[in-house]
Amino acid sequence: MKPLVNNQAFAKALDIAKQARDYGYPPSSWAETNLLFVEGRCAQAIEWGDIGTMAINPATSKVINKVGATITPGTTQILDRQTNKLVACDKFTCPYAIEGINHAPYAASGGWAGFVNAKANLKVKNAAFAFLSFLSQSAQSNVDVTIGGTGLSPYRISQFNNQEAWIKAGMTSEDASKYLGGISVSLNNPNMVLDLRIPQNHRYQIEVLGSAITDFLTDKITREEAIQRIEQGWEQITNEVGRESQRAAYRASLGL
Q1: What is the pLDDT of residues 111-138, one digit of tens each?
Q2: 20 to 30 Å CA-CA from 149: which of 87, 170, 195, 227?
Q3: Whether residue 220 is found in the same domain as residue 108
Q4: Within this chain, do residues 62 and 177 fall inside the same structural domain, yes or no?
């Protein structure tokens, strides 16, 4: 459960993030980023799939039929955990590389989930279950994933294999292929990275990691200070909650 931040790979990732900052819009919410993109004021965004469907809304979009999608950028280097240094990718260090580029697409937030309160009365339980079932069945979900305002991205195999609903929503066949292809290649990548799904994950990711990166990107702290703050902050939480219990939870979240 040692955080992998005090190394050349994480340091370089921070440097790239700061370089990207100089070419982008000031830090903003995901909603503002989406709006800037569909208004034609932003050329590229690393985001959820919402942008693709928001971009075909004639009421708000100025980029209809002008949007592509692809897997997030990768790298030709990888962290060697034995030496704690960056090494070049080859067929052994990066077995899943695509044309020499190693990608690690991020499944941010891990998807939507519905729950029914175990203490609710039977009538309420049945109603809640029926509602969740209604939302997730293909008749409704196949439409919902094509509407940007729902916050839903394609998740059924049929939604990737059948373009009918997407074309009906306003995409051309070419646009649908690009959009669905970009998401599909990410979801099927063996290096897909999941959100941290263990107790106190909000403290790890938002209170410690998020705040340190924000302070680094706004030049309040140095790269080395950011790394130290993240490492020390995560170690403190792990020790506080219990290293072995956190390790067990982490392994379980990965299906190990």
Answers
A1: 888 999 999 999 999 999 999 999 999 9
A2: 195
A3: no
A4: yes
Question: What distance in Å separates the CA atoms of residue 24 and residue 19, rounded to the nearest whole number?
Answer: 9
**Other CB atoms within 10 A of residue 17 CB:** 13
pLDDT digits (tens, 9 = 90+) for 139-186: 999 999 999 989 899 999 999 999 999 999 999 999 999 999 999 999
Total domains in the chain come to 2
User: Hey, what are 89's tokens?
Assistant: 């990718």
* Token duo for residue 69: 């999608």
How far is 240 from 84, CA to CA, in rounded Å? Answer: 26
